[in-house]
Amino acid sequence: MISVVLVDDQELARAGLRTILRQPYGFDVVGEAADGQAALAEVARVRPDAVVMDIRMPRMDGVEATRAMLAADPSSRILVLTTFGEDSVLAAALRAGASGFCLKDAPAEDIQRAVRAVAAGDGWLDPAVCGRVLRRYRTDPVTDPDAVRRLGELTSRELDVLKLIGRGLTNAEIARHLVVGEGTIKTHVGRIFTKLAVRDRAAAVVFAFDHGVVRPGEPPPMPAV
């Protein structure tokens, strides 16, 4: 039996979930809360296998409640169940640490499967938003924390040089574009390779594209005046 806490400010919504998450289907609703703040106390009290969390609620919304719940107990398993399928809501829920995201108009069987998956330690994405998440994963730059740290070590001029390297310019062409000497560019390039831990120019180009330093259609940096 999977123990569940329902968090939603609408009693009608909680009543609907109670009919879906009943004991004959393997669920036991052991607690309810009408906002995120009340949910923190309820979850700490009953320690359920899964929390079904709405997003827009008074006092504390579902994103903040998810973040606070996981800070208090990282083993918490939270399925966000919302009417809103916008990318911003989805991103906020996942960044807060939710294990799953499901829309309220999903079939009852899908909501049951989603709660089971989250309680078992797996993830769940509603099929209605899954395609958008995959497209974003395929097109967004990689956000490796170590790479972000290394990028942050570049000076603004070194970043300009890296952008121009990413566009295929030679040192001489970069020097002309930025109106500086080629020797200066060579120095910048050497420092860029060291700071980014890349072995050569080709690796720097790959790094620039992988991490969003260069994007198609974006104009090159202009010389300082």
UniProtKB/TrEMBL annotation:
UniProt keywords, alphabetically: DNA-binding, Phosphoprotein, Transcription, Transcription regulation
SMART domains: HTH_LUXR, REC
Residue(s) carrying 4-aspartylphosphate: 54
Gene3D superfamilies: 3.40.50.2300
Biological processes per GO annotation: phosphorelay signal transduction system; regulation of DNA-templated transcription
HTH luxR-type domain boundaries: 147-212
Response regulatory domain sequence ranges: 3-119
GO molecular function, one term: DNA binding
Top-level taxon of the source organism: Bacteria
Designated name of the protein: LuxR family two component transcriptional regulator
Lineage: Bacteria, Bacillati, Actinomycetota, Actinomycetes, Streptosporangiales
